[in-house]
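@channel sequence for tomorrow's demo:
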Amino acid sequence: MLSLLKRPRPVISFTCAPGDLGVIAEPKPAKTALPEWYRKLPAVDAAERSPTNSGLTVKRCMPFFDALSTGWLMPLAATVRMEIRDDGKTVNSGWEFDRPLVSNHGAHQVAGNPREPAPPGKFHNFWSIRTPPGWSCLFLPPLNRAPQPFECVAAIVDTDTYAAHIHFPFFPTAPDGLYVVEKGTPLIQVIPFRRDSASIDDEIRAETEAEAGERERVYRNTVAGDGWYRKHARAAR
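structure tokens (generated this afternoon):
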């Protein structure tokens, strides 16, 4: 009886044109596409262990892992060659795919932005993203991953109502040169969230004695190395 009362889990849908399925690169849960360097990293580096150094690596840092593994990765549909010239002021892109993959934004649309004089471009995305009512998606450059010769722009989209393709504006960031961006390269990390959960008031004040004690207790348990965050902070979700 209890199982019948369970709320169904919300679903995010990625849909494409029938002719694109099996041709363009597909979105992946971020947790299934962890970087190779992270997979190979030991949780404890024995060579670094000493009486004053636990040798622990970022592999034991749950906040780092949560950022790395949350949401979905939106990939480049097909391989693109990107040439950056004139100290980053010019970008030319080419591909052999039968659909447009990159286009240009007018520089006037982002006049005064901190990336000037790098020109704004746009990767074309052929996946529609749909979420349940009340859910939006945060789009941002993939977290804790190796940089690409470009960086996409962060945005929030109400994907419960906006079903059109969401393209990914970007700025070139690499030195002048010719770069090959392979099919499937993660462009964006998509993190769904309930909009009502984003409504929160703030207060700015000095901490109480009890709050200071809690802060110190949490810190000391964390550095004690017994996996406190994994056992307690994560378990409280």
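heads up for whoever presents: Residues 39 and 67 are 15 Å apart (CA to CA).
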